[in-house]
Fold:
Amino acid sequence: MPSWVDSGFEAYADRMPRESRLELIEVPLSRFRRSGDVARAVRDEGERMLGSLADTDQVVALDVCGRKFDSPGVARLLEGWMQAGGDVALLVGGPDGLADACIERSRLRWSLSPLTLPHGLVRILVAEQLYRAWTILKRHPYHRE
Structure:
């Protein structure tokens, strides 16, 4: 990823409190992409994503066909996740999307937009929205309505 992606993600991740820490785990693109076997590559990437999860993780798939939330709605999600305890894993697919197994493992499918967004921008957007959600819950002046 370009340095602006890392900087953008870290700018918001660093603002999050300890109890809502953001951790980025990158799963490299599959070697099967080089051979042109896209379906196998997506399955391989999905298996590696799922392999990085704990059985107790709440899984959210970032998916264009998922539910849409406004910022207060994301705050309600974050509040529920915080009350439930445990870790939440947000899965972002590669260039050809998420594996079906990732979608099936998810409790929630979250659509950021009907637009196709680059992976790096999704990282920043999700980090910013989670920070914004936390500020809404804490009545911090970052979010204005």
